[in-house]
Write a structure and sequence with these properties.
This protein is α/β, with parallel strands linked by helices. It contains 15 helices and 17 strands. The radius of gyration is 20 Å and the shape is globular.
């Protein structure tokens, strides 16, 4: 499908699974899918300079509308030339809507039909986000892909709560779509499927969004505390409802094995804080599973974090040294751990894309599903 400066094309499909290979064209360059978007909440992926991200092959990053609105402010960023220029990142950017922050800071917010009133987690000041204002903020930021404001329920939400939340999100989506269309920005706006763990509510959500003709659709409200088996059950039922000619974005998921499995169901785009957050806590993702570098057992280990990894960390540093940095509270610990984790995620996505291109993703998936979470 094509919409102004935004276009998505499926260029290859795997024969054994629903995995697909695509090209997502944006005003700031093309993105090869399936793709993982490192999370740059306030315009920075924690601990990694932008040139390192470029060297790793990062195609697109995610920034946070809520946090950038609070600090330094979308109007200031607009005056300084937009988010790409402000943060010196020339490649595509997706901005989330702040809906997850409204969900996660629910003790600080109050919902109404008009939007979400909340207190800043920084200084307690009062703010209000409406579906329209969220679009205006993202237009000021100048991101390539914007998200509608939605409301997410947590596990275990009852059917009545999930239905009410989904219907509110669909009304907000319609208002956001109208504001985005009036702005004629040339960028893309994605709708977000909600409905909790109820397949029929998910279907109703997809049907409502289909009538709004969004250039792409995201799947929200998963990985919010539910059992993993249930998450994939709901995901599989939902992906099967989405249009084949639009990119499909699974929000906030997950481990490398989770991503590999979701790709097999037909998902194209991912983001998650796990590689950066876990890195700061001394947890490395490897082809042999999670490696807790802070554990005493690595004190005298001269081997690389992951013998199968060719990132600059694994080629140069030992487990013993990385443990020493972590135990000493050295800032370099977070830098090196994050560099490895983000590299591991991006390399995993490269392997996934190659396997889909070759029509061998079924075998690739079997190997990746064996990675311990």
């Amino acid at each position: 499908m094509s919409d102004g400066g935004f276009r998505f094309e499926v260029v290859a499909r795997d024969g054994a699974t629903a995995a697909r290979r695509g090209i997502l064209s944006t005003p700031h360059g093309a993105v090869e899918t399936p793709v993982f978007m490192p999370v740059g909440t306030i315009g920075a992926v924690k601990a990694l300079p932008h040139d390192w991200l470029e060297d790793l092959g990062t195609q697109i990053i995610l920034a946070n509308t809520y946090h950038l609105y609070l600090r330094p402010g979308h109007e200031r960023i607009a005056r300084l030339g937009g988010l790409h220029r402000f943060m010196a990142w020339p490649r595509p950017i997706l901005t989330d809507s702040g809906g997850y922050q409204v969900f996660s800071h629910r003790d600080l917010r109050r919902l109404s039909e008009e939007g979400a009133e909340f207190r800043s987690h920084l200084d307690g000041s009062r703010h209000f986000l409406s579906p329209e204002k969220v679009i205006d903020i993202q237009q000021a930021l100048g991101s390539d892909i914007s998200m509608v404001l939605d409301e997410c329920t947590s596990w275990p939400a009852g059917r009545a709560d999930a239905e009410s939340s989904m219907e509110l999100s669909m009304r907000w989506a319609r208002r956001a779509r109208a504001r985005w269309e009036a702005s004629q920005s040339g960028t893309a706006l994605f709708g977000i499927v909600q409905g909790g763990m109820y397949p029929d509510l998910r279907r109703r959500s997809v049907d409502a969004l289909a009538g709004m003709d969004f250039p792409g659709l995201a799947i929200g409200g998963l990985s919010v505390g539910e059992p993993k088996g249930l998450m994939f059950e709901v995901l599989e039922a939902t992906v099967g409802l989405l249009p084949a000619d639009r990119p499909r974005y699974l929000m906030g998921v997950g481990t490398p094995a989770d991503i590999a499995r979701a790709v097999a169901l037909g998902v194209d785009m991912f983001d998650c804080v796990l590689p950066t957050r876990n890195a700061r806590n001394g947890c490395l993702f490897t082809s042999q599973g999670r490696l807790m570098i802070k554990n005493t057992r690595y004190s005298d280990d001269s081997g690389p974090p992951d013998p199968a990894c060719e990132c600059r960390v694994c080629l140069r540093y030992s487990r013993a040294y990385l443990r020493h940095l972590y135990q000493a509270g050295e800032h370099l610990s977070a830098v090196l751990n994050t560099l490895h984790n983000v590299s591991f995620y991006l390399d995993t996505m490269r392997k996934i894309r190659e396997a889909v291109e070759l029509g061998s993703y079924g075998k690739c998936l079997e190997a990746m599903e064996k990675w311990p979470d």
